[in-house]
C-alpha cells in the first residue's frame, strides 16, 4: 500500500515538474494572461461583497519607458543584472533583522516576485517557499533578464484592481505607460512595497522622499545604459 502511494506521489511530482517547466517556457514568448495575485484579489472582492474589475493591459518591452524599468530596479532589486534569482547577502541581512524581532523585512528579488505573483498564493510557509525557489529557478533558467522585468512590469499590483504599468499610468496619471515622466516613474516605484495603501498620484511625505531617493539611485545605476546589461 505504501509503495503504491509513493509511486503515485512520485508520478504526481513528475507531472507537476513537467507541466511547470512547459508553462514557464511558454511564457518566455507568450504574454501572461493574468496572475495568481489577480485571482486572489478578485475572490477577496467577491467575499467582501465589493466586486472589482481587474485593470490590466499588456505592454511590450519596447513600449515600456526606460525610466520605469530603471526606477523599479533601483527601488526593488539593484543587483538584478548580477544575481541568478536570489540575492544571498540581502537574504542573510533580512534573516538577521527578522530574528531580532520587530517588523518583518523581505529580500525578494524581482525574479522571486514574478514567481510569486504569477504562480503562487499569498502566505508564509515552507511549501510555498519551496515552490517559490522552484519557479524562480525555472524563470532564471529559461527567461532572459529583460523578459523577467517585462513580465514583472505587466503583472505587478499598483492599486486596488490595478495591475501592470499601463493600467497604473492611466489610473494614477491619466497617461499611457509610454508617456510616463521620470518623476512619475519614480513615484510608481516608490509605492511598490504597499501599492494598495500608498498612492503615487497623491504621495505622502514618505512616498515623495522615497521617490527622490529612487531618482538618485537611478542616476547612480547609470540610467538607461544600465539596461544594456540585461
From TrEMBL:
Q: Enumerate the transmembrane spans.
A: 12-30
Q: In which pathway does it act?
A: Cell wall biogenesis; peptidoglycan biosynthesis
Give the membrane topology. Single-pass membrane protein
One GO BP: peptidoglycan biosynthetic process
The family line of this record is: Belongs to the glycosyltransferase 51 family.
Entry keyword set: Cell inner membrane, Cell membrane, Cell shape, Cell wall biogenesis/degradation, Glycosyltransferase, Membrane, Peptidoglycan synthesis, Transferase, Transmembrane, Transmembrane helix
Role noted for this protein: Peptidoglycan polymerase that catalyzes glycan chain elongation from lipid-linked precursors.
Q: What class of enzyme is it?
A: transferase
Write the protein's name.
Biosynthetic peptidoglycan transglycosylase
UniProt cross-references to HAMAP family, sorted A to Z: PGT_MtgA (MF_00766)
- UniProt source species: Metapseudomonas lalkuanensis
* A GO term for molecular function: pentosyltransferase activity
**Origin: domain of life:** Bacteria
* Domain Glycosyl transferase family: start-end pairs: 54-218
Enzyme Commission numbers on file = 2.4.99.28
User: Where found in the cell?
Assistant: Cell inner membrane
Q: Does the keyword Transmembrane apply?
A: yes
Describe the reaction catalysed, as an equation.
Answer: [GlcNAc-(1->4)-Mur2Ac(oyl-L-Ala-gamma-D-Glu-L-Lys-D-Ala-D-Ala)](n)-di-trans,octa-cis-undecaprenyl diphosphate + beta-D-GlcNAc-(1->4)-Mur2Ac(oyl-L-Ala-gamma-D-Glu-L-Lys-D-Ala-D-Ala)-di-trans,octa-cis-undecaprenyl diphosphate = [GlcNAc-(1->4)-Mur2Ac(oyl-L-Ala-gamma-D-Glu-L-Lys-D-Ala-D-Ala)](n+1)-di-trans,octa-cis-undecaprenyl diphosphate + di-trans,octa-cis-undecaprenyl diphosphate + H(+)
Gene Ontology CC entries for this record: peptidoglycan-based cell wall; plasma membrane
Q: Where is the signal peptide?
A: none
Q: Which InterPro entries match?
A: Glyco_trans_51, Lysozyme-like_dom_sf, PBP_transglycosylase, Pep_trsgly
Amino acid at each position: 500500500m505504501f509503495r503504491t502511494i509513493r509511486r503515485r506521489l512520485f508520478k504526481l511530482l513528475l507531472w507537476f515538474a513537467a507541466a511547470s517547466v512547459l508553462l514557464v517556457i511558454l511564457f518566455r514568448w507568450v504574454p501572461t494572461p493574468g496572475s495568481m495575485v489577480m485571482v486572489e484579489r478578485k475572490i477577496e472582492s467577491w467575499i467582501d461583497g465589493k466586486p472589482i474589475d481587474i485593470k490590466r493591459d499588456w505592454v511590450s518591452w519596447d513600449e515600456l519607458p526606460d525610466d520605469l524599468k530603471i526606477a523599479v530596479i533601483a527601488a526593488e532589486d539593484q543587483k538584478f543584472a548580477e544575481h541568478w534569482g536570489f540575492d544571498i547577502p540581502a537574504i542573510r541581512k533580512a534573516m538577521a533583522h527578522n530574528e531580532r524581532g520587530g517588523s518583518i523585512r523581505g529580500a525578494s528579488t524581482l525574479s522571486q516576485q514574478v514567481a510569486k505573483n504569477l504562480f503562487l498564493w499569498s502566505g508564509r510557509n515552507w511549501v510555498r517557499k519551496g515552490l517559490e525557489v522552484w519557479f524562480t529557478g525555472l524563470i532564471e533558467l529559461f527567461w532572459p533578464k529583460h523578459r523577467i522585468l517585462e513580465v514583472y512590469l505587466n503583472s505587478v499590483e499598483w492599486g486596488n484592481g490595478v495591475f501592470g504599468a499601463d493600467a497604473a499610468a492611466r489610473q494614477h496619471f491619466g497617461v499611457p505607460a509610454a508617456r510616463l515622466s521620470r518623476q512619475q516613474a519614480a513615484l510608481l516605484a516608490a509605492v511598490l512595497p504597499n501599492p494598495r495603501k500608498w498612492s503615487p498620484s497623491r504621495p505622502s511625505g514618505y512616498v515623495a522622499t522615497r521617490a527622490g531617493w529612487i531618482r538618485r539611485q537611478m542616476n547612480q545605476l547609470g540610467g538607461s545604459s544600465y539596461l544594456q546589461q540585461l
